[in-house]
Amino acid sequence: MNPAELAPLVRRAQRGDTLAMNDLLDALAPYIGRICAPIALGHGPDAAQEALIAIFKSLKTLRAPEALFTWARTIAVRRPVTLASSGRTFRTRVGGVVTRRAHPRRPSDPGDPA
């Protein structure tokens, strides 16, 4: 779907239409996943889920439904970075056991103070 086709769907989702929200989720999830995967390293799916939650929680603040993908991309880029800098842990399944481990941090810029 192109942005013009999504605009009516976004407006319905903003009014609380759960079917529209579901269709919007189907349209956004692959896009958000592709954005979050390289940022969150091994935790792309977790970061994408967190970004999608943030997107849907703030969907009513989107003023121009035609700008959905640009607006969602901004959130999707910021969310994994925020999670990484907070040191938040993610649940990971290892050998059938769920463990918790810290979100991997990206290597710092050599010019950044340690």
Structure explained in plain terms:
The protein is mainly alpha-helical and 114 residues long. The protein has one domain: Rna Polymerase Sigma Factor, Chain: A. It contains four helices and two strands, in the order H-H-H-H-E-E. It has helices at 3-14, 18-39, 44-57, 68-86; strands at 89-94, 97-102. The chain has a two-stranded antiparallel ribbon with strand order 1-2. Helix 2 crosses helix 4 (68-86). The longest helix has 22 residues, at 18-39. It is elongated. This is RNA polymerase sigma-70 region 2 domain-containing protein. One of its GO terms (molecular function) is DNA-binding transcription factor activity. One of its GO terms (biological process) is DNA-templated transcription initiation. It comes from Glycomyces luteolus. Residues 94-114 are annotated as: Disordered.
According to DSSP, the number of beta strands is 2
Task: Give the overall shape.
Answer: elongated
What percentage of amino acids are in beta strands?
A: 5-15%
Q: Helicity range of the residues?
A: 55-70%
Report the CATH topology name: Rna Polymerase Sigma Factor, Chain: A
Largest sheet: 2 strands, antiparallel
Question: What is the CATH architecture assignment?
Answer: Orthogonal Bundle
Mean pLDDT: 81
The CATH superfamily bears the name: RNA polymerase sigma factor, region 2, helix turn helix motif
SS summary, helix count: 4
Tell me the radius of gyration.
16 Å
Strand order of the largest sheet: 1-2
What's the number of structural domains? 1
Termini gap: 45 Å
CATH class identity: Mainly Alpha
Which segments are poorly predicted (pLDDT under 50) over 5 or more consecutive residues?
A: 98-114
